Amino acid sequence: MKRLLLVLAALGLAGPGLAQVKTHGIPNLSSVEVKMDGKLSEGEYPAVFTDSKTGIRVGWVSDGQLLYLALQSPHPGWVAIAFGNSKIRGSSMFIGYHLSGGGRVDEHTGSWVSTHRPIDKPSLINFATGSAGKGTVIEFAMPLTLSNGQVIVPGQPMPFVLACHKTKTSFKGRPSIKSSASLVLGKPERAHDVPAAADSL
Length: 201
Hints:
9% helix, 1 helix, 5-stranded antiparallel sheet, single chain, 7-stranded mixed sheet
């Protein structure tokens, strides 16, 4: 009887957690006021949230052609966001770090559960890195068509993963902590801003 109660209790705790997937919206505006300076400045991004598990603060907005993002990690190691999957494997990942002498943002593809590798033809448009207290900030612009062929389409949920390493700037390190959620790009202000989905999908 005690074992049955323990099993039922475990299922009760696990059920709501498995069913809940946080969804975050991205404004899709005709023009944006993002300054690519490695800072997540107050009022720069119309949508900002802090992920409760990783502590990563995210700001983002789209102009219908590009997605502009700022990731602010509470840790000095690398920080990343991966699109297209609720796990790193098979995702399109943007990963970066900041050091006193400069920073770096690369585009990777998820090759296994928590491992990733650089892609041959990155689609990254522009980037900047900075620091906030003891933490790392990366800011970049990317197309709505991902390197893995998926497209961030208005109104259609897209899974993503946030990840960071607490100390390492080497991209070879597995994340210290990660979490997954979903995003939904808002309806565009102009009809021609809707990206076309790849025919091969």
